[in-house]
Amino acid sequence: MFCTRCGKTGEELLDTLCRSCFLEELILAEIPEELEITVCTHCQSRLVSGKWYEMELSDEEIIINTLNNHIKFSSYAQNVEIRVETLLERGSIIECIVHVKGTVLDEIVEQDYKLNVKINRTVCPECSKFASGYYEAVIQIRADKRNPDEEEIMTVDSIIAEIIDKISRKNKMAYISERIVLKEGVDYYVGSYKVAKRLSNSIKDNMGGIIKESPRLMGRDKSGGKDIYRIWISVRIPFFKVRDFIKYESVVGQIISIGGKKIMFRDLISGNQISILWRNYDKITPAAKKEDVIETTVTAKTPNSIQILHPVTYEPVDIEINDEIADLEIGSRVPVIQINSSLYILNLFHNI
Ligand SMILES: [Zn+2]
Ligand SMILES: [Zn+2]
Q1: How many separate domains does the chain show?
Q2: 94 and 137 belong to one structural domain
Q3: How many beta carbons lie within 10 A of that of residue 279, not counting itself?
Q4: 28-63 per-residue burial string, b: 16 or more CB within 10 A, e: under 16
Q5: What is residue 121's three-state secondary structure?
Q6: In this structure, are residues 118 and 37 in contact, taking their beta carbons and an 8 Å threshold?
Q7: pTM (two decimals)
Q8: Which of 87, 114, 175, 262 could form a disulfide with 191 if both were Cys (CB 3.0 to 4.6 A apart)?
Q9: Are residues 228 and 138 in the same domain?
Q10: What's residue 155's pLDDT?
Q11: The predicted structure's pLDDT at residue 351
Q12: Considering the domain boundaries, does residue 5 fall inside one?
């Protein structure tokens, strides 16, 4: 037996070649001469077999990733490593060298291959949706029986900005394509319905309110013949604010907190804290605004009652004593609220 390349005899042959001829003839990797890569110029997403993948990678990393699907290594090679070096960019073509390194027959073999990479720079469907103002849902911020005020709108803006900032890195549909200020509130056009739901739930957790969704038929998909809907999500914040006065099931009280699940208020007579679930919101009626609180003076005190001057008529008014107001001294100034024809002394501690 002899090597078919150099004629050497007396050596174990591999594929009819002696060891040194085999290593010289070896092709470490089969690499295409050309590669085409489609990349989104906005978000660097990459198109791989018809599907877009999000990734923030360098050209070299993108080439290696794509190359991995098109490369075939010699079955004799072990511990193969590849490295791509970009040499020159000519228009949309990048000329590269692919360095391949592997172990063959206990020997380290290195080979270089020329590769031309054609980069198709385009815009991925999600980025083009954003660019064209596409939206799936509209969040309508409204208030019950009034218009939202500037402070409330600022709060909504900052909740939305914070969440969008947090999730837009992972979710390209997390964007606001339009913000429209109306007399009765603000409309936010949101790229994805899922994101709009998350935003409106956070707004409710923070400010309370009632959420209602209504789909609107926008037309028909020209290619698929399917109906196209957009979802309007209305977030109606309550008519009252913290420290306003309300009436609920004949109890008159002052709002302590407004949350996503419930409303807390303090009974003005007993001082007890009571919670109301949002589903019972319609049973709440307005009693007075926090701005209606007036100060007056304690003029007399008995074991059963405290006498104050009516802040408007200056008539003396006797109020039955309770734990909340038992410590008041004659001559002290106290905040009071008039609701219908009754006066209530407000607990000083809770009304700073
Ligand atoms: Zn040989
Ligand atoms: Zn993109």
Answers
A1: 4
A2: no
A3: 9
A4: bbebeeebebbbbebbebbbeeeebeeeeeebeebb
A5: strand
A6: yes
A7: 0.70
A8: 175
A9: yes
A10: 96
A11: 47
A12: no
Q: Which ligand is nearest to the CA of 52?
A: 2
Give the per-residue pLDDT at 73.
93
- The torsion region of residue 325 among left (phi > 0), alpha (psi -120 to 50) and beta comes to alpha
Domain span at residue 42 reads: 19-125
The pLDDT of residue 168 is 87
In a domain, 6, yes or no: no
Listed residues 125, 143, 158: the one ending a domain = 125
pLDDT tens profile 158-203: 999 999 999 988 888 899 999 999 999 999 999 999 999 999 999 9
Instruction: Please name which ligand lies nearest the alpha carbon of 10.
Output: 1
Which element (helix H / strand E) includes 9?
none
Higher pLDDT, 258 or 320: 258
pLDDT band at 213 (very low <50, low <70, confident <90, very high): very high
Distance (angstroms) between ligand 1 centre and the Cα of 26 equals 12
CA of 283 relative to ligand 2 center, distance in Å: 49
- How far is the centre of ligand 1, averaged over its atoms, from the C-alpha of 7 (Å)? 6
